[in-house]
Amino acid sequence: MIRGLCANPPAKNWYGAIVKFVFYLRPSYPLTDTECCRVGKESVLITLGYSSALLKFESHAGNSFSNTLKSCRNEKKESSVFSQRTEEASAVQYFQFYGCISQQQNMMQDFVRTATYHRAILQNHIDFRDKIVLDVGCGSGILSFFAVQAGARRVYAVEASSVAQYAEMLVKNNHLSDKIIVLPGKIEDISLPEAIDVIVSEPMGYMLFNERMLESYLHSKKWLKANGMMFPTFSDIHLAPFSDEQLYMEHYSRANFWHQQCFYGVNLSSLRGAAVDEYFRQPIVDTFDVRILMARTVKYTVNFMDAEEADLHRVEIPFVFQMTQSGLIHGLAFWFDVAFVGSVVTVWLSTAPTEPLTHWYQVRCLLHTPLFAKEGETLSGKVLFIANRRQSYDIHIVALVNQTGFRSGNILDLKNPFFR
């Protein structure tokens, strides 16, 4: 607690100096990750990450201090790449979610995910031995520990959510404070004291792109040496048409609730159309039998070594499928693979329906109207991912059966998936 800093501050810049003094005590905390509130007439409570300070002022100095702090935070927001692309409410929700130990446990207990990262790093230990490593969005810090096990000289573990404090606890308890440096903050806001040899991260979301963390992963390349490496190195997203009458009718059945004309005396039927539209805008997160797929997949590759952040603002995937069976096409199914290209071995992590299940599952997007196609006919069109400020994407699908001219499509909200 700081009391009676100055009853009559000598200059207007005094408040700014105090703001800088407070925050530069903990430079790894971006100003945008701080909170400030008045406590009575004389005090201001400031939270820096998971630490708090109560400043007590005389007279009305606290009010000026609070205003100066807010001004500094706003200036910082304007210059933050992350803030420019993200709504504040979305960011708060996102970091609260990943700040929960239970969510970290959910990811760590995904055996395919964790074991694949462990194998990719340890089998390519030559790429980590005596190297400087950056772990982007480190969470619990598990990938940082893997890097040290592979011989890394030093690891900078960057984490913007409050789980950074738990990562720090694990580092200290495992006696690795000399190897792993936890930096609370966003990769877009922090500064590193040296260039990086290897970047590790787990930035993939549903359908690969959800949550837009891939952009943060690409942003981190500004610290990467010219001959540096990235784990993962590239990703393939796969898509294929599917037939699933039961799934399609389930979605319509969900909307039938709003067809009731006497729900406790209230007619709900005017909302059924809106309900159908909303439910069909939801990508469906689940898994399925590969026998529902009606054609060989189309693949779209994102090479993290070459891609820029702007490349992910609008992703267009054209497709032409030759149907391997006749029937109704109810939508498109999606999954992804990522490759860790090391000097010794390339290791793959797959979320395909033919592989052991992961916490990413697979994702299916329904067409508004099913299309009928015969074996040997072609289905052409495109999938367009358009990034939004809710850390997700709007998905535009158009599809055409070339031989008949029948077409269908849909616009989906990846931020609002349906977990089946």
Automatic annotation (TrEMBL):
Q: Quick one: a GO biological-process term for this protein?
A: methylation
Pfam short name (any one): PRMT_C
Q: Report keywords, A-Z.
A: Acetylation, Chromatin regulator, Cytoplasm, Methyltransferase, Nucleus, S-adenosyl-L-methionine, Transcription, Transcription regulation, Transferase
Q: Give a yes or no for keyword Cytoplasm in this entry.
A: yes
Keyword check for Cytoplasm, yes or no. yes
Q: What Gene3D superfamilies does the database record attribute to this sequence?
A: Hnrnp arginine n-methyltransferase1, Pleckstrin-homology domain (PH domain)/Phosphotyrosine-binding domain (PTB), Vaccinia Virus protein VP39
Q: Which reaction does it catalyse?
A: L-arginyl-[protein] + 2 S-adenosyl-L-methionine = N(omega),N(omega)-dimethyl-L-arginyl-[protein] + 2 S-adenosyl-L-homocysteine + 2 H(+)
Major location, coarse class?
cytoplasm
* Annotated EC: 2.1.1.319
Q: Where is the Protein arginine N-methyltransferase domain?
A: 237-393
SUPFAM superfamilies attached to this UniProt entry: S-adenosyl-L-methionine-dependent methyltransferases
Note the InterPro entries from the entry.
Answer: Arg_MeTrfase, PH-like_dom_sf, PRMT_dom, SAM-dependent_MTases_sf
Q: Which CDD domains match?
A: AdoMet_MTases
Q: What's a Gene Ontology MF term here? A: protein-arginine omega-N asymmetric methyltransferase activity
Can you supply one Gene Ontology CC term for this chain's record? cytoplasm
Give the protein name, as stated in the record. Answer: Histone-arginine methyltransferase CARM1
Signal peptide feature range: none
Please state where this protein is localized: Cytoplasm; Nucleus
